[in-house]
Amino acid sequence: MTETIRTIESYHAHVYFDGPEARERAAILREAIGARFRVQMGRWRDQPVGPHPMAMYQVAFEKDLFSTLVPWLMLNRQGLTIVVHPNTDRPKDDHLKHALWLGAVLPLDGSMLETSLAALGRAQDEIVPNTAPTLMDI
Ligand code: ZN
């Protein structure tokens, strides 16, 4: 059985950091992403939250950004671990089965992730880009 990519509404990249030195690199990366891409930047999470085992921030982005943002992250991730996951109706699969890792694979806690949002009558979060890119050199 195959799944169609039409079920993907958007993506998240989660940028992980561990300790002050890595947080500094994460800040450099955050600045660089915000300058180049129309993303919705999540707030700093200095403690593990949700399924994530380490401090991180989230970068939410629309599908059409995948082919530029993800390769750019491959080349510029500052040695940090990043997970990129699709957002479909099924958060548990999105994180545990369908994620793309740059750097080490970290263990995610799927116990609090829903199997299906539609079954709960919930919609996916809408992405509202809140940064205006200022650099064109991606
Ligand atoms: Zn996410």
CATH class: Alpha Beta
Task: Report the radius of gyration as a whole number of Å.
Answer: 15 Å
The CATH architecture is 2-Layer Sandwich
CATH topology: Alpha-Beta Plaits
Strand line-up of the largest beta sheet: 2-3-1-4-5
Structural class: alpha+beta
Heteromolecules bound: zinc ion
Query: Total number of helical segments?
Result: 3
CA-to-CA gap between the ends? Answer: 36 Å
- Largest pleated sheet: 5 strands, antiparallel
* Count of structural domains: 1
Strand content: 15-25%
Count every beta strand, where a strand is a DSSP E run of 2 or more residues. Answer: 5
Please give the share of residues in helix: 10-25%
What's the CATH H-level homologous superfamily? Answer: DOPA-like domains
Provide the low-confidence segments as ranges.
none
Q: H/E series, N to C?
A: EHEEHEHE
Shape, principal axes of CA atoms? globular
